[in-house]
Amino acid sequence: MAAETRPKRPIRWHIGIFLAPAVLVYTAIMILPLAGTLQLSLFRNIEQHQIFVGLENFRTLFGDPNWSVGFWNALRNNTWFFIIHMLVQNPIGVMLAALLSSPRLRFAAFYRTAIFVPTILSFVIVGFAWKLILSPLWGVAPHLLDLVGLKSLFTPWLGKEEYALTALSLISVWQFVGIPMMLIYAALLSIPEEVIEAAECDGITGLSQFWKIKLPLILPSIGIISILTFVGNFNAFDLIYTAQGALAGPNYSTDILGTFLYRAFFGFQLQVGDPNMGAAIATMMFLIILGGVCVYLFLVQTRLRRYQF
Amino acid sequence: MSTRSLPRTIGAHAILLTYTAIALFPVILVIMNSFKSRAGIFGAPLTPPTPKTFDLIGYSTVIGQGDFIHYFQNSLVVTVASLFFVLLFGAMAAFALSEYRFRGNSLMGLYLALGIMIPIRLGTVAILQLMVASGLVNTLTALILVYTAQGLPLAIFILSEFMKQVSDDLKNAGRIDGLSEYTIFFRLVLPLVRPSMATVAVFTMIPIWNDLWFPLILAPSEETKTVTLGAQLFLGQFVTNWNAILAALSLAIMPVLILYVIFSRQLIRGITSGAVK
Q1: CA distance A10 to chain B (A)
Q2: What single string gives the DSSP state of each residue in A64-79?
Q3: Is B262 in the same domain as B212?
Q4: CATH for B120
Q5: pLDDT tens across B162-209, in order?
Q6: Which helix (H) or strand (E) holds A50?
Q7: Is A251 left (phi over 0), alpha (psi -120 to 50) or beta?
Q8: Looking at the structure, do residues B151 and B265 belong to the same domain, yes or no?
Q9: In terms of domains, do B11 and B144 share one?
Q10: Domains along the sequence of chain A with CATH
Q11: Which residues does chain B have within 8 Å of residue A266's beta carbon, measured at their own beta carbons?
C-alpha cells in the first residue's frame, strides 16, 4: 500500500530473505506432502504404475467390508475417545484451574508443577507405566482398590474388549489434563481485577462468582481447548500403539484412526501395506479434522468473540 | 471474610492434593520399584526400597543390553538441531510478518498458521516417499527436517505476537543510525524477545523428544533410533523382565523430569503470560 504511493522505493529483499527459510521448509516438508497425500488417495498402484482411479480407493474404503468395518470401528472408537476427553479431561482441568487461581492459595506453584508432570512424559512411558499398574500380575491396582474396599471391581481393564478403550482414554486424560488446566489458569489470571471487585461489591462470591462471572469470560479459552482436544484426539496414535500394539487389541476394540492408518499404510500380519489406501485414510482424517476446525472457526469462535466484548 | 473462606481453602487444598497424588503416583511408583529386587517389586510394590529389597539388577540389565547412550545421543541431536532451526527460521519469519507491511502479508500469515491446526502426520505417506526419493530414510536429517516443519507454524504465531510488542522507536532509532535490517533483527529485536523464545523452545521440544511416529516410520534403523523408539522396542522385548522394564522406564523418565524441574518456572510463566490466546 505504502509502496505504491512511492514508486521509486527499492524492492525490499530482506523481507524475502527473512521469510524464505521458514516458508521453504514448511512448504516442502509439510504443505506439499499433505497435498501429495491427498493426491495419492486418488491413485492406485497397478503393475508398478500409479494409475489415476478417481474415488475408487474411497469406494473400497466404504464399500469393501474388509475395509469399511475397520474404518467405522476406528471412527466410532475415536469419537468415544474424544467424548471421554471432553467430559472428563476438560471439566477436571477447569476445576483445577479455578482452584489454583483462587487468591492467596499456598503451594499453588507446587500443585501446578506437579499436575503438569504427566504431560511432559512420552506416550511410551505413560502407556507402559499404566500397563504395569493395571496388570493383574503386579497387583498394584487391585491392592489399591482393596484399601478402599472395592477389590471386587477389579478386572484386567486393558485386556477386556468392553473396558479397554475407556481405560486408555482415561490414561490419556490423566496425561493431558495439565494442558486445559494451564490454559484456563492463564485465562482466569487475565480477568481484570475490577470485574472481580465489582462482582464482590454486588455480593457475588465463591461458586456463584465462578459460574456467573468467570466462566462466561473464559469461554473462548474453553473453545480453544475443545478444538485442540479434537485435533489431538483424531490424530492420536502413540498411546494405543504403545499400550496395545499396532493391532489395537483386544479384537480391535481400541483401534482408532491413527492405528488404522498405520496398519493400512505398513501392512500387518497377512495384509501387505498399501500407501494409496493409507493416503485415502489420511485424507478422511484430514477432512474430519478440517471439518472440526471449520466448525470451531465459523460457528464457535465468532459467537464467543461477540460474547467476549 | 477469612473465617468464611477457611473451609473453602481446606477443601481446595484437599482436592488439589488428591489430584497431585493421582498425577505423581504412577511416576513415583515406577521409579521407586526400579530400585528393588524382583521379590521386592511383587512382594510390596507400594513401599519404598528397603536395604533388604534394594537392587540395581534392572539398571545393569538395561545398560548391558540396550544401546541407550547411543539412542540418547540421537534424540539429543535431533531435538537440538530441530529446535535451533525452528527458533531461527521461526523468528526470522515472525519478524518479517510483524515488522513489514507488504502485499500478501496477512495471507502469508494465514498460510503459515495452517500447520497449527492440521497435523503434519497426515502427510506421512508422501513424506516417506519424499525421503525415500531423496535418500534420507534412516538418517537423522529426515527427522530434523520434519520436526522443523512441524514446529514452525506455532513458533511463528507466538513469536510474531511478541515481536509486535517491541517498540518501534527503538527499531527506527537503529535505522537512523544506519543499521541494516538484519542487524536490527539480530542485535535489537532477538535479545528483546528472548523470554518468548524460551517459551517456544519448551513447546517445541517436548513433542519432538517424545515423538514415536516419525522415528518409527522414517528412521527405525539401529543407527538412528531415538530414545523414545528405543525404549518402545526395548520394553516390547523384555515384557517379562520387570526389573529391566522398570529401570528402562525410570531412565527414560528422569532426564525429562530433571529438565522439567529446572525449566518449569519458565514454561509455566510462558503459558500463563498469555502467549497462547
Answers
A1: 13
A2: SHHHHHHHHHHHHHHH
A3: yes
A4: 1.10.3720.10
A5: 888 888 888 999 999 999 999 999 998 998 888 788 878 877 888 898
A6: strand A49-52
A7: left
A8: yes
A9: no
A10: 56-308 (1.10.3720.10)
A11: 217
Q: How big is chain A by its Cα radius of gyration, in Å?
A: 24
Kindly state whether residues B45 and B116 are assigned to the same domain: no
User: Residues B14, B149: one domain?
Assistant: no
Residues B127 and B34 occupy one common structural domain = no
Domains identified in chain B, total number:
2
Q: How far apart are CA A243 and CA A127, in angstroms?
A: 5
* A11: Cβ contacts below 8 Å, ≥ 6 apart: none
User: Please, is A280 exposed, middle or buried when counting C-beta atoms within 10 Å of its C-beta (0-12, 13-18, 19+)?
Assistant: buried
The residue whose grid cell reads 482424517 is A285
Residues B39 and B124 in one domain: no
Alpha-carbon gap, residue B114 to B137, rounded angstroms: 26
Instruction: With CB atoms and an 8 Å threshold, state whether A122 touches B212.
Output: yes
- Give the integer Cα–Cα distance in Å for B13 and A78: 35
Strand, coil or helix: what is B53? coil
Residues of the domain holding B141: 62-275
DSSP designation for B49: P
Per-residue confidence in pLDDT tens, chain B, 277 aa: 444 467 878 888 999 999 999 999 888 988 888 888 888 888 777 778 888 878 888 888 888 876 778 888 899 999 999 999 999 999 999 999 998 888 888 899 989 988 888 889 889 889 999 999 999 999 999 999 999 999 999 999 889 888 888 888 889 999 999 999 999 999 989 988 887 888 788 778 888 988 889 999 999 888 898 888 888 888 877 777 888 888 888 887 887 788 888 877 777 776 666 544 4
- Alpha-carbon distance of B87 to B269, in angstroms, equals 19
Is B127 part of the contact surface with chain A (CB cutoff 8 Å)?
Answer: yes
On whether any CB of chain A is under 8 Å from the CB of B1, the answer is: no
Do B78 and B187 lie in one domain? The reply is yes
Question: Is there a contact between A281 and A61 (Cβ–Cβ < 8 Å)?
Answer: yes
Burial B87-120 (b: 16+ CB within 10 A, else e): bbbbbbbbbbbbbeebeeeeebbeebeebbbbbb
* Out of A22, A96, A144, closest to residue B90 by CB: A22
